[in-house]
Amino acid sequence: RKQTNMIKYLIIILISVLAVVLLFYNIQAAANTAVLESDKSLRGTHKKSWVSPNAQAFNEHLEATQTNHLIIVAGHSVIVAGNLEDAAYDENVWFLLDYQKSVGMPQAIVSHIRAGIAEAAKDPKSLLIFSGGETRASTGPVTEGSSYFRVADALDLWQGENINDVPLVGRLADGRTTVRARTITEEFATDSFENFMFSICRFKEITGSYPQKITVVSFTFKRRRFQQLHAKALHWPLNRFSYVGIDPLPSTGFDLAKSKAGEVQNAAKPFESDPYGCHSPILQQKRKERNPFSRTPPYKLSCPDMSRLLDYCGPELFPSELPWDYLD
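Given the sequence above, the corresponding structure tokens read:
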């Protein structure tokens, strides 16, 4: 009888232990489910890698270091969500200021990325740069340049929309373009002038020389700012400059007339009297707000022949020669 009672006690203890284990398992499973649900809301529901298995490595066959044409896509926002497959239409993917909402910004940003890739695909001697720094304090240290690159990866945009427009010399043996291997980021610019100037130095860091041609991709209403104000301030020859302007469709809520008026008042007019953005209160305030992490660009070290230009404040045009002053 004692032996029977002991067996009963052991069975009861075993059942109790199993009950505790099952309870712990259920609690852990519930916690994991809650984490996964939270994870979905933060990062998106599709657990895909941003980088495809056959993604080209940078400069895989020395494509980047042998370029002479700089293509700049000027950044306007940073990513704040992981569902990058929705980046072309979901405003929640991007950190947008109030004036950037309900005006087609996601579509515009992805269109700019596509246009930069398309331009790079047409010229195998081009280096594509997504330019823009850590511009928003509330997002943490995320750069506009790297955000654009990640979206290009997530949406697999590297082959462009019409592969037949890509010259054979710009393709790999399997038919893919070499654009991803010729794309980098510039991660310190806080405004359009710095997009232009810093990207020139970034090009030099990669190739060892300055570009012979520059193409800029941005909104149509910013053409004059880049072409007539920034290019002039940087001594860049207009016969070696191209501009690709793309705006959101009117159906998105984008108002071109309103954007043009804002451009004149808040950017073009200040840059007309202050070409290097050093004196105008509005331009200085923008640079301060867009550099919340107090980053210091390294370009005086990597491009010492640009150091005087990088420090120059005007308001007169830069008086000295620059390395590209004698391009044919």
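The first strand starts at residue 69 and ends at 74. Try to locate this feature in the token string yourself.
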